[in-house]
Each structure stands twice: as C-alpha cells, then as structure tokens.
Design goal:
Length: 121
C-alpha cells in the first residue's frame, strides 16, 4: 500500500500534514509494506481555486490512497476514477498519520463530504 500525504516540509516521517491536497508544498509518498518514503515538490502549489493539478507531480508514482486534511469534490472524483481513495488526515506528522491509517482510524473522503473551498478540515 502506497500512501500520498501532502506535507508542509520535506522532513520525511517528521513532516506535518498540510491542510489541503492541491496546494501542499510537498507530497510525501509512503510505502507501508517496504517502510520507505519519497518526498516530491509540488510545482503546482500556487494556483487559482479549482485549477490545481497535483496529480501531475505524482505521475508514475503508483499510489493507492491520498491522506490529507482536505480535498475538493472534483479532486476526489478524479482520484476515485483512477482507483485511488482519499482519507481525511488527523493533524500530525507523517508517522502519526500512517499509524492511524494502518489501524483503520481515518475517515474516507467522498464527493459528498469533500471540501467546498480551501482551508476546510
């Protein structure tokens, strides 16, 4: 299972989750089975509302789920069409989020409970 967690910094397991998927400075990709991670810069973090293209930064990274503080309905729909689920992160670090995810403690984000604007949680 490979998780993509939008983060504030590129500090690996100590990086704190960012509040919104598309405007995160970094994406930390965690491979739970291999206990490995990779951090990618989000070159598209500054964009007009509704115009983000975060998946461009993740092309070829083969992720199974995104765990984030918030995400709009169109992003959820796009991920779901690609077979990727989205989950609402708890505030904390990558290590804490991975722990909660593996315990089944995170809510799935759906089109119905997605964010309406940036900054929602």
């Amino acid at each position: 299972m490979r998780l993509c967690i939008p983060t504030e910094t590129n500090e690996g397991k100590n990086a704190r989750v960012f509040g919104h998927f598309g405007s995160a400075p970094y994406f930390t990709i965690v491979d739970i089975e291999k206990d490995s991670l990779e951090t990618i810069d989000n070159a598209n973090q500054h964009h007009a509302h509704g115009m983000c293209q975060p998946m461009h930064a993740l092309t070829g990274k083969s992720i199974d789920a995104v765990v984030t503080g918030g995400m709009g309905a169109r992003a959820v729909q796009g991920l779901n069409q690609s077979g990727i689920k989205a989950y609402r992160a708890i505030p904390g670090t990558v290590a804490e989020i991975v722990s909660q995810f593996t315990k089944g403690g995170l809510e799935e984000i759906t089109v119905q409970n997605a964010c309406v604007r940036h900054g929602c949680h």
